[in-house]
Amino acid sequence: MTTTPLRERASWKALKEHHAEIGGRHLRELFAEDPGRGERMNAEAAGLYLDYSKNRVTGETLGLLADLARESGVEERRDLMFRGERVNTSEGRSVLHVALRMPKGSTLVVEGVDVVAEVHEVLDRMADFARRVRSGEWTGHTGKPIKNIVNIGIGGSDLGPVMAYEALRHYSRRDLTFRYVSNVDSTDIVEATRDLSAEETLFIVSSKTFGTSETLANAHSAREWLIARLGDEEAIARHFVAVSTNAERVASFGIDTANMFGFWDWVGGRYSMDSAIGLSTMVAIGPENFHEMLAGFHEMDEHFRTAPLERNLPVLMGMLAVWYVDFFGTQSIGVMPYEQYLKRFPAYLQQLTMESNGKRVTRDGQVVDYDTGPVYWGEPGTNGQHSFYQLIHQGTHLIPVDLIGFGKSLNPLRDHHDLLMANVFAQAQALAFGKTEQEVLADGTSPEVAPHRVMPGNRPTNVLLAETLTPRLLGVLVALYEHSVFTQGTVWGIDSFDQWGVELGKVLAGQIAPELQSDGEPDLAHDSSTNTLIRRYRGLKNA
Ligand code: F6P
Active site located where (predicted)? Predict the structure, then answer.
């Protein structure tokens, strides 16, 4: 695999020259010269269609981007990941979320252990538990069936589960209530529990480490809430289950490890929604649908593993991101699902993309001399159009956008869906081609106002289309972005699987918390700003 620094790779240099030639060209020109590109520049996998023709690329660009992926070792590193090698070098760990969705009966032996067999053992226990909760066989302390499920977790132990629950609400049991508590702000848990009956409430405490302070604070408050209402410590056994890799900490919290669902250190938090962290998802949609979702993930994994780079959806999307970030100076990428059920998908992607690729040193510790992970953000369409799309259309930043749409609505109503999808195609068209001054003037706009109405266009989009949002399709979509992130991180030579940048803040918060609670003049050893803020807070708190 290459150790050549990125800027010295032959394909990088070729792209640099190529960018000087075509970087300024307009999508209007590219379409005029090659009118059939919209019929050709697309790819399809696992029921997902990608139109990438409205990107600022030619056939040559795509060839050079594939060369860069190849020269950067995307295929070799992908194969190392799928084999269970320790590709997360700074933590010395394998990265095997792909094993979480390998079918029952297949094998993947890593360091002497068949990880697929272990995965299915846990999936079977989860399915058994989910069935018991869904059927009412699992009862609370007073003998009543469970009606409310509250997942307590943060980061990957929250964002995946809540996104999947919202995305697949159509398939979920409507007589069960699902809530997700993540923030240490007490408002989160107070609001989530205020109208629930403790007798019918089950808490799933989800934490890979079982050491995350926010989750532990919420879990302790949930325990107090329950005991205050049911008056018996014994109630914990029927109202708390845990999802974690740390049995010792689960036991010392007071949850019987018989009610714990495990996973492994080779599942990163942001790659864990299809592990036991998805227990609440499974209770909501049922084991069969959960397995459908896993099958979708696996289908995209297989596509990523086997399709040629030029037709490989995650590679195409990942390399296009590299193209814009490193050659056009793009700082952010928008992801706009035109599907209300995917309203939490952008929030989920924020962690997946930015905790993975928000890095400034290569795997061997060299500070990079190029840009890495862009900001990913978004909102469902059409809402975003009436808010921030103005900046995407006419602002000074180049923001490539992924637009995600479906052929069928899960809630068809009059002509809503056609109106929704008309907006997807209209936005992609307006962003690409814009409106020239001549066209604006021809509409009768005065010369003074015309500059304000000019739409420069040349804003790139990917359009992703599928038939319907199903559990399977959700798996396909998430795996697509996971592997796109992998592709980008590999080109940049960074470790996409660690997250050391979140640690310092945790340590400092641990030091500051007792200072906020102590009476009298605290021993404040911080900078003058932090000390002053702490004093001010104490004053406000005690006012
Ligand atoms: O602080 C970041 C982080 O470590 C994420 O990577 C992780 O998803 C989240 O915290 C929660 O961690 P845990 O599942 O161990 O509670």
Answer: 355, 386, 506
What span, in angstroms and rounded, lies between the C-alpha atoms of 99 and 453?
52
Q: Dump the DSSP string for 390-411.
A: HHHHHSSS---EEEEEESS-SS
Nearest to 243 by CA among 168, 149, 113: 149
Q: How far is CA 253 from CA 230, 277, 443, 502, in A?
A: 18, 18, 69, 24
Structure tokens at 238: 């029927």
The answer on pLDDT for 244 being more than 90 is yes
Backbone φ and ψ for 152, nearest 5 degrees, come out as -110, 120
* Ligand 1 center to 219 CA (angstroms): 15
Predicted confidence (pLDDT) per residue in 4-33, tens digit: 999 999 999 999 999 999 999 999 999 999
Q: Can you tell me the ipTM of this complex?
A: 0.98
Alpha carbon distance 325, 371 (integer Å): 7
User: Ligand 1, from 95, 151, 157, 496: best to mutate by most atoms within 8 Å of Cβ?
Assistant: 157
How far is the C-alpha of 541 from the C-alpha of 543, rounded, in Å? Answer: 6
Q: Is 405 a residue whose pLDDT tops 90?
A: yes
- Per residue in 276-296, pLDDT tens? 999 999 999 999 999 999 999
Amino acid at 98: V
The residues near 382 (Cβ < 8 Å, ≥ 6 apart) are: 338, 420, 423
Ligand 1 centre and the CA of 67: distance in Å? 35
Cα separation, 457 vs 207, in Å, equals 45
The residue whose CB lies within 8 Å of the most ligand 1 atoms, and thus the one to mutate among 93, 152, 208, is 208
Q: Which atom of ligand 1 is nearest to the CA of 206?
A: 14
Among the atoms of ligand 1, which is closest to the Cα of residue 159?
8
Section 212-238 average pLDDT:
97
